[in-house]
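dumping this here before i forget
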Amino acid sequence: MRKARTIIVSLALAAMPAALSAQGGPGSPGGPGRGARNPVATLLERRDTLRLTAEQVTRLEVWRQRWDSETAPMRAQVDSMRAQGGGGGAPDPAMRERMAPLMQQMRTVGAALRDSAYAVLTAEQQAVARSLEPPMGPGRRP
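structure:
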């Protein structure tokens, strides 16, 4: 009985990152602090600070959806690779090496989509948006 309960709890905990990813919470995929956060969603969340017009919001919604749909297969592949590698913590060097091309592709696609979304903003709004971005630090790439 105790062993069954332990297995059930372990399975529930193992499923949590996927559930958080599906919810699209902060730092999605994988919940807080993990994975690629949709930068266009962040712009939309800050619509009052950025003083977005209704037209800008409509155009940014299109870019948000495009970011989600274009990066979803890559994010799923990363999640799958992480799960194969044990799922917890930082990936080992061999896993990192296998993931590197995919991560580069995600950065390239994400940057292009982010830049397209930023083109919707005025120069002043772009400056404010960039000031709201988290600073680059260890483990964060531009």
